User: Fold these one by one.
Assistant:
Number 1:
Amino acid sequence: AWRHGDPWRRQLVAVLERHRDMVLEAVRSIPGLTAATPHATYLVWIDCRGTGVADPQAACEAAGLGPSDGRDFGFPGFIRLNIACPTPRLAEALKRLRRAFASGAP
């Protein structure tokens, strides 16, 4: 940011907005998941309580995804996903999120 200034910042904000939209779209497509639209952050809180999955963190890890466990922050049944990563990595993470909460997940 210091080296490239405002043009770099604008590009970063655009990427993070695109990532936010990717995550919210994916969450809407997975039954039982919800997420509030994050503002001024690259962390998305996902409410997994509606999925019926007893341990969302374990389900994610079994699918190869490593979000932050909401229990660590006093929010059992939630996961926190960092979206500040390369776009292909986020796309793969969202595939794994779908797999984690597919019918029959633990």
Number 2:
Amino acid sequence: MKKPAYTGIVLAGGKSSRMGSDKGLLQYNGKCMVEHALNALKPVVDELFIVANNPAYTRFSYPVYADILPDCGPMGGIFTGLSLSKHSENIILSCDIPHVDSSLISRLLDVKRDAQVRVPRHHEKVEPLCAVYHKSCAETLKQLLHKKELKMKNALSHFRVVYLDLPSDAHTEWIFKNLNFPSDIHPTIELPCK
């Protein structure tokens, strides 16, 4: 059976209002935050690009696309990515969860493929900004965007979803730690004991 092809889509188009500057371009553990996401996706995808509204992201040598529908938050970024992707299967990864790595993404890809969305879940929390979306989700997302229904967790109810259930522990919390404030980056967050 032929291995499916995947597109990796890094979301870096947020306003970063809580951070005070474009968070994807901030240094964290020796790299720009967006580089952590690119490095996590690179080994497992056949196409890779960034959705961002800042042309400075072109320095990372991957295509950069602005939101098709501006000011619509992460859902707008996902819609843009799915609309421009070459492949049916797409891995979405936000640039502000830099502890996600290729091994976690590989586990997500191993979840059964008859769903439209494959998403991690822990502590009853879902992680829609680190998930696999089928390109067919784009049309529904477009309809939701036009109705200004922008919450991704609500959007999932419109799709066939399967979950990758992860342990509800400190390590999983650390993996999905969302870096939103300057204090999240300095001092550097250390990996908690397992």
Number 3:
Amino acid sequence: MKTARKRVLIADCHEEVLIALERMLEDAGFDTSTAWTGRDALGLLQSKVFDLVLINKYLPDTECGDIFKTLEQTGAGIPGIVLQPRTPESTELEALRAVGACDVVCQYAYPQIVEIVAGWLGGGKMGAAQVA
């Protein structure tokens, strides 16, 4: 019997980030959906079931905290990882975790992002342990 692949939503307004993460996560064994805007991401969250969400901290039309509120309201316990242009400072980690992020990572650290996603989901081809 074939096991269902874990589903990841990627919300980022940078085309190169969306394409790179989509390809790398698909290659790692995950199903992906992409959104250019927060509004698109919120729409996808209402119409599909996801196992994890990757959210650009600086989406032009939505605060990432609004997306975390939506995730919390679903009650599904979907982890959300914030993507930002550089490695996060410890104070940023604390602030973003306070609004619901399970992790924060540089949006250009593609292999690290794939590893973190695999760790949180324990799926894909990697089967990594959960990354704290």
Number 4:
Amino acid sequence: MTLENKLLVGSILPLFFYAAWFIAAYKFVNIRDWPKYYKTILFFNLASAIYSLIFLHTYPLWQYKNIFLGHTFLDLLNFIIGFPCATIIFLHYYPKKVYKQIIYILMFMLIYTSVEFIFYRLNSIVYYNGWSIGWSAIHNLYQFPLLMLHQRNPIWAWLISFVALAIIMYVFNYPIGSAL
């Protein structure tokens, strides 16, 4: 596949993934239950917005490369469709037994990481400043337990999120002066 074809497919593909998340949420979860998960959906969205505010314009770790929609519009689609649908599905079916929780979290981590890997192979996502698909997998591994923690105890989820943010800034040598 040529680079131009990869960019074309990679630019259209996110729309199919958003549609798939929406259809899955509509089909497998009672959509009237969304208020029960609303605060955690906002947590997911706000955490992503914080990343964008801190990193995106001064020291990005990753960025969507889309010839039709652009990074900002894809972020908006994540806020409106991707994150809410994923959060509702994840929380609705979260198992009670610990060993099933581990498998469930790994399953969501694999889904998110696999989708990102496809985007990477199609040149729809670009990594910067040392970030890679491996770091995304690690991020996805703690991101989903944080959603459940937020559903049960928002304060702890926010505290852990800010610690994770500080660690990411340290590990990837974020130039603190550039944000000021």
